[in-house]
Amino acid sequence: MNSWFVMISKKLINGFLLLVLFTAVVPCLAVRTNFIGTGDAHDWCDAASWDNDIPGADDEASVQGDGTLIIDTGCRPTVGLLRGPGRAAGHTTLTIRDELTVAGSDWRAGYFGEGTLNVEPGAVITVNSRIYAGFFGTLHMNMTGGSIYTPGYLQFATGDSDAAFDCNMMDGSISSDTHMYLGTKGDCTVNMTGGQISTPSGMHVFMGFETGTSILTVDGGTVSVGNTLRMADGGSTAILNILSGSVSSSSLYVAHHDGGSATVNVSGGVLSASSGGTGLFGVSTAAINMTGGEFNVSGTFELSKTAGSTAQVNLDGGVMMLGSLTVNDGGLIDIGQGVLKIGGNVVSTVNSYINSGKIIGYGGYGSLSVVFDGQYTVATAGCYSPPGDLNGDCLINYVDFTIFAWDWLNN
Question: What superkingdom heads the lineage (predicted)?
Fold first, then answer.
C-alpha cells in the first residue's frame, strides 16, 4: 500500500510541477482598454481618451463608440491587439499621422460596427500578423499618404456578405507579404488616383473571393501583383477600371472560378501581365472593354478556357498586344476603332478565327484587315454603317436616337 501511495504521490507532484511550468510560459492575456471620447480630436497618447489607461504592447486597444481618435506626430503607440475603428454601436474615426505598430496579433477594423480610417502623410502602420478591414462590419478609408504593411494576409470586406469596405487612395502604399483580398464575402470598392498597392513575388491579389462585388478603379498610381491578379472567384463579381496609371501582374485571370463574373474596362493607362485568360476554372462570364490605353500580355492569352464559359472583348479603342492568342468556343473579339496585335506571323490563325465568327468587326458590320508587319500580326476593322447608324460611326446608340428625334421634331 505504501509503495502505491508513494507512486501516486510522485505522479501528482510531477503533474503539479508540469502544470506550474506550463503556466509560467503562457503570456498574460492582454488588458482591454476602450476609447471613450465623443466628438473630434481626441489624442491617442492622452490617458483621458481611454477607460483603462493608454494601451500598451501587451494590451488590446478597442476604438469604438462615437468620436475621433488621432495618432498625431510624436505619438507612436505599440499595442498587442487592435479592434476598430468601428466596433459595435456608433461610428468611430481613427486618424493616423505617425507610427502605429500592432505587435502581438491582428488588426480588425470595421469590427461588427462602422468606422472611418484616415491614413495621412507621416503614417507608418505595421501589423505583425494580418489585417481585416471591414470584418463583419463597414470601414471607410481615406489615404492621402503614409504606408500600411503586414507580413500576413490583408483582407477587405470579410466575415459575411454584409461586410463592406471602401477606400479613396490618393497617395501612400498598401502592401502585404502574402495574398491580398479585395473583397472576400462582402462588397469592396477601391478608388485610386495615386499611390501603390503591391504584393511580392508569388503572392496573389484576389478581386472577389466567395460572394459580393469587388470594384477597383485606377486613375493614377500603380497596382503591382507578384503573382496572379484573380478576378471573381466563386460566385463573386469583379470590376477593374483603368483610366490612367498602371496595373501589372505575373498572370491575369478574368472570371477565374466557377460562377464568377468579371469585367475589365480600359480607357487609358496600361494593364500588363506575362500570361492569362478567362474562364480558368469552371463556367464563368468575362468581358474586356477597351476604349483607350494598352492591354499587354507578353505570353498566351486564352479566352473561355473552360467549356461553357463566355468571354467578349470589345476593342473600341486602344491597343491589345498579346504574345499569342487562343479563342475557344464562347470567346469573341469585336474590333472597332482599336487595334489587335499578336506576336509573330499568325495571319492564318487569325483568319481562321474570323471565318469561324470568333473575331468580328463593328458588331459584324465591319470589314477586317489582317497583316503581318514583320513583328506582329495586326488586325484592324473598317466600318460599314448598319441600318440606323445615322452619324456613320458604325454604332447604333443614343447619339443616333438624338439625331432621329431632332429630325422628327424639326421636320
Answer: Bacteria
Sign for the pseudo-dihedral over CA of 171, 177, 182, 183: negative
Report the alpha-carbon distance of residue 165 to residue 114 in Å, rounded: 10
SS (H, E, C) the chain: CHHHHHHHHHHHHHHHHHHHHHHHHCCCCCCEEEECCCCCCEECCCHHHECCCCCCCCCEEECCCCEEEEECCCCCCEECEEECCCECCCEEEEEECCEEEECCCCEEEEEECEEEEEECCCCEEEECCCEEEEECCEEEEEEEEEEEEECCCEEEEECCCCCEEEEEEEEEEEEECCCEEECCCCEEEEEECCCEEECCCCCCEEECCCCCEEEEEEEEEEEEEEEEEEECCCCCEEEEEEEEEEEEEEEEEECCCCCCEEEEEECCCEEEEEEEEECCCCCCEEEEEEEEEEEEEEEEEEECCCCCCEEEEEEEEEEEEEEEEEECCCEEEEECCCEEEEECCCHHHHHHHHHCCCEEEHHHCEEEEEEECCCEEEEEEEECCCCCCCCCCCCCCHHHHHHHHHHHHHC
Residues β-bridged to residue 355: none
Mean pLDDT of 122-127: 98
Look up the pTM and report it: 0.88
User: Which range among 7-11, 114-118, 379-383 shows the weakest confidence by mean pLDDT?
Assistant: 7-11
CA–CA dist 102, 166 (Å, integer): 22
Gap between the Cα atoms of 213 and 207, Å rounded: 8
pLDDT tens digits, 316-333: 999 999 999 999 999 999
Amino acid in position 214: S
What 3-state DSSP class applies to 54? coil
The answer to whether the beta carbons of residues 226 and 199 sit under 8 Å apart is: yes
What's the rounded Cα separation, in Å, for the pair 156 and 60?
21
Q: How far apart are the first and last CA of the chain?
A: 120
Nine cell digits for residue 20: 506550474
Cell of 118: 484616415
Pairing of strands 180-182, 205-207: parallel
List of residues 6+ apart from 23 with CB closer than 8 A: none
Q: Is the pLDDT of residue 4 over 60?
A: no
| Percent of the chain at pLDDT exceeding 90 | 82
